[in-house]
Amino acid sequence: MPTVLLCLLLVFSLGASAQVADGAASAAPAAPAEPAEQPEQPEQPAAADDGIVDMEALVVSGIQPGPGLWKVSRDGRVLWILGTVAPLPRRMQWMSDEVEGIVAASQEVLDPPSMAMRSGLGTFRSLLLVPSLLKARRNPDGLSLEESVPAEIYARWVPLKARYLGRNRGVERWRPLFAAQELYEAAIRRSGMTLDGVVAPVVERAAKRHRVPRTPVQLAIVVDDPKDAIREFNEGPLADTDCFERTLARIETDLDAMRERANAWALGDIAALRAAPYDEQYVVCIRAITETGLARRLGMENFRRQLGDLWLEAAEAALARNASTFASLPVSTLVREDGLLARLQARGYAVEEP
Q: 197-227: per-residue pLDDT in tens?
């Protein structure tokens, strides 16, 4: 998963869309590497007596069924929803026949809710802004990471960085949020998991093969002057210490829980998915950007609620016109007491778990 804020900045200029649901975010394309920032390739970290234990063997592999689907229905019309999680086991092959069959038999596929930031710039002019986007990772005041966060938090960063990022010196000049996400992605890889999407490519191929129309559910944010927006972000502060600390805590204590949740998804264990913790750092990290003056002016401070409302509207419309519709949403959204399924149920729809 590309770094959250870098993705948000990229869409200012490149017209990409960031999928944001229940505190997690992803976008494409990722920014190119910045050679000057990383003069040395990170070494492959060796085992160390730092109290961190890798338990990659606990992650399942091979062909796995994945979870069943939630069923939302009324008046003989059905919306099938596949719950998704991230990360997932890296060496897993998803046995997706059931989902492909439901997509083929449906009249519509609802894409996951996403936020699309757009500007009037063309592709060539947008690419000219990439160097400015890359600078957004750096602390605007020239401080190092060690100087940007409290000493006790930085002391926790040091052994984690040594284990998962090796001798990557460039990251020490990044803002805490960007540095934390770089570390998180490396820790996920070392733990036998992946943040790459598994469900979306399968659904897209099935919909294309069977000519099932896909309906985007997008909250459009228009950036009139992306160059000024990027400059404002580059020069402004970020309240991202909490994001940095929360990400370190997840790596220190929650890798086992993430493995268990990934295994539960792969094995189709809905009870385990419901019981799994979903205390993700993304809620805090995204808040660091949405509470800036720039984000408030763009109307982003309550975008998660807006995305939920848009998805509910699209789901009800699809249920009204189709005999069968397929959608996918994060499991955490589905099992929460105030999640989207609960809101559909409150509107009179029947909801059945897998």
A: 888 899 999 999 999 999 999 887 777 666 6
Buried b (16+ CB within 10 A) or exposed e, 103-133: beebebbbbbbbbbbbbebeeeebeebbebb
Rounded distance between C-alpha atoms, residue 31 and residue 34, angstroms: 9
Output b/e per residue, 10-23; b: 16+ Cβ within 10 A: bbbbbbbbbbbbbb
With beta carbons less than 8 A apart as the criterion, state whether 319 and 74 touch.
yes
Closest C-alpha among 297, 283, 298, 289 to residue 118: 298
The residue-averaged pLDDT of 258-282 equals: 80
Please, which pLDDT band fits residue 194 given cuts at 50, 70 and 90?
confident
* Residue 37: CB atoms within 10 Å: 17
* Closest listed residue to residue 239, CA positions, set 286, 199, 193, 277: 286
Place of tokens 């790459």: 196
Give the chain's end-to-end CA distance (angstroms, integer).
Answer: 28
* Cα gap 258→196, rounded to integer Å: 15
The secondary structure element, H or E, covering residue 84 is strand 77-84
Task: Tell me, yes or no, if the pTM score tops 0.85.
Answer: no
Give the residue extent of every domain in the chain: 4-33+53-352
DSSP state letter for 138 = B
